[in-house]
Specification:
612 residues, four-stranded antiparallel sheet, elongated
Length: 612
């Protein structure tokens, strides 16, 4: 199966024709070459072509899907429109003909987990000379910066000025079996104290039927124990002329205290702090959903040493070419090629096959799949961080960073929404008292309420969380979606084509028919078949035995039982040798006839696996 088909992106498996040399450049035109990591099938090519074809100044496009490159012939003073268009459809484009002048650095920022922080960082780094592009992945808390050489220290200083500690990530490192879940640490004590004191402030205010010195003290304790981080973030935002939700909340709470609404100020700050904790936990859950795929690979494997002995070795320490032994029931730790032995391997997590696949010398095996029966040895062909499963995990994580159309709309909306809300709040506070003779404190209070109620936090964070949750949920069920763009396109589906047997299976075979042939007696034949099947651990044999047990079929004693890999089983019952197996075994025994072949073909055409 081709790489494109294995990803399930809906492309055909027709050979991809390498493009010929680009046509000579027209007078006044230039060429830029991009490498696009997530462009690997005609689906992406069509998406890019439709997006860039309408751009003024773009003269031609040359695609190379095998190399994942795109050559753009243009007459543009700046390539910013092209790069913005590619980014808008989730394409991760890197300019190749400027590789010597620019580099891309991936940074891990532990405190960046919300579009509020993204906007703050984007505005700050946008003023740093030499920064060409920023690519955020909030779910993984990473930022990829494309920048000129020697500019990275300035980027780190700018992030530190915003209160973010950034660490450079090795971009060659992909998901590995030892990767730990990402969890936001929560200090519950300040939040608990804040909740208790805010509730006490409300109670004291009610008992005294108004403000009291104890109400002020309790409210101040509640605000500064539960909202100190909000004030810090709000102050940083205001210093950088950014009106985000932390700035709005800080202004609203401070204003409420200044006009004497102490209990309300305390309770609003506590509820906002509690909402931030819930939001952080929900984001952690979304981040770690895809990490559950890592549980498919064992951390240890049995490897042959130089002296011929076998020893348990960590999967990350095993090199290419090592000889690994797999026991029945074990998970395979690394990709490889079978050298010795035969078995049936359940590789549904990787290939989607509903039944275990027979493996013999020369066949490939995948990390994360389960060895159902016999023992075998294989040669490692890929390192732990480059196995098929690791690349799948890496692809899904990368897909989380690409914005879907709805998410891009919400982000743009929020960028204008917050300043507009702040302006409306100022108008609510000033216009009625100035022009209508209304009470100042009353309308200032209403303006502060507007700031609290209109906070865009839930709106902005809900879209990326829902998209990542959808990607992760699909991945857990073996469906790989290459980003939010394609997830949203699913609403346009009208037909679904499957390249399997024409049926959607549950992965557990069940007996559907029992047919006799010739002069065979149904009762005797089924009893013999069930007796042989009960001695085998193959999923198809288990299905035959389970159906017989359900129908109360009596089992017979089987002597000299023997498994025939890739064919079936044999054994002696009442002194006679019987075989139970597939079409291949029947042909090797010389029992096929044209009439029987026709009957088998009819059953197989109906999508059934025939056992004789």
């Amino acid at each position: 199966m081709s790489e494109c088909a294995s990803k399930g992106c809906g492309c055909t498996t027709e050979p991809i024709i390498q493009p010929t040399a680009p046509a000579p450049l027209a007078t006044g035109s230039a060429q830029a070459v991009y490498r696009i990591e997530n462009m690997d099938c005609p689906t992406e090519e069509a998406l890019i072509r439709s997006k860039l074809a309408g751009l003024a100044g773009v003269a031609g496009l040359e695609f190379n899907l095998m190399q994942r490159t795109l050559a753009v012939r243009h007459e543009l003073p700046s390539l910013s429109p092209v790069e913005q268009a590619l980014k808008a459809i989730g394409m991760q484009a890197v300019r190749m003909d400027q590789a010597s002048a620019e580099q891309t650095t991936k940074l891990s920022i532990a405190k960046m987990d919300c579009p509020t922080e993204e906007t703050l960082i984007r505005n700050k780094l946008g003023t740093v000379a030499g920064v060409a592009d920023l690519d955020f992945n909030l779910m993984q808390r990473t930022l990829s910066v494309r920048h000129a050489n020697q500019v990275l220290p300035d980027v780190l200083v700018a992030l530190q000025a915003l209160g973010f500690e950034a660490q450079v990530v090795d971009t060659a490192e992909v998901a590995s079996p030892s990767a730990a879940p990402v969890t936001t640490p929560t200090n519950w004590w300040p939040l608990g104290i804040s909740l208790v004191t805010a509730s006490a402030a409300e109670a004291v205010y009610w008992l005294h039927n108004g403000n009291h010195w104890s109400v002020v003290v309790l409210a101040l304790v509640a605000v500064f124990t539960g909202g100190l981080s909000t004030y810090k973030k709000g102050w940083i935002a205001l210093k950088n002329r950014n009106l985000n939700m932390n700035a709005l909340m800080s202004i609203a709470v401070t204003g409420a205290m200044l006009i004497g609404h102490w209990p309300e100020a305390a309770m609003v700050m506590v509820l906002f702090a509690l909402a931030e904790v819930i939001e952080a936990k929900s984001l952690d859950r979304a981040r770690n959903a895809i990490r559950g795929l890592l549980d498919l690979t064992p951390e240890q494997a049995t490897v042959q040493q130089a002296d011929g002995t076998w020893r348990e070795v960590g999967a990350k320490q095993i090199t290419i070419g090592a000889r690994v032994r797999v026991k029945p029931g074990e998970r395979i730790a690394l990709d490889g090629e079978v050298l010795e032995g035969r078995s049936a391997v359940n590789q549904a997590p990787i290939t989607g096959e509903s039944l275990p696949v027979e493996k013999s010398p020369g066949d490939s095996v995948f990390a994360g799949t389960i060895n159902e029966s016999g023992s075998f040895e294989y040669r490692v062909t890929a390192l732990a961080n480059n196995s098929t499963l690791a690349r799948i995990i890496h692809a899904v994580e990368a897909a989380q960073g690409s914005s879907a159309p709805t998410q891009r709309f919400v982000d743009q909306f929020a960028r204008w929404y917050t300043p507009v809300v702040f302006g409306v709040a100022i108008a609510v506070a000033l216009l009625p008292p100035l022009f209508m003779g209304a009470a100042w404190l009353d309308w200032i209070y209403r303006a502060l309420v507007l700031l609290v109620v209109a906070c865009p936090c839930a709106l902005v964070i809900s879209t990326p969380v829902s998209i990542v949750s959808g990607l992760a949920a699909a991945a857990r069920h073996g469906i790989l979606i290459k980003g939010g763009v394609y997830l949203e396109e699913g609403r346009k589906l009208r037909w679904l084509a499957l390249d399997k047997t024409g049926t959607i299976t549950h992965g557990k075979p069940a007996q559907t028919d029992f047919v006799t042939w010739g002069n065979a007696l149904a009762s005797d034949s089924r009893s013999i078949a069930a007796s042989l099947a009960a001695r085998s651990d193959h999923p198809v044999s288990k299905a035959v035995a389970q159906a017989a047990q359900t129908d109360g079929v009596a089992l017979l004693d089987v002597a000299e039982f023997n498994a025939l890999p890739g064919r079936g089983v044999q054994g002696q019952i009442n002194g006679a040798t019987y075989h139970l197996g597939n079409h291949r075994m029947l042909e090797e025994l010389g029992q096929c006839t044209p009439e029987l072949e026709q009957r088998i073909a009819a059953l197989e055409t109906a999508g059934k696996t025939v056992v004789m």
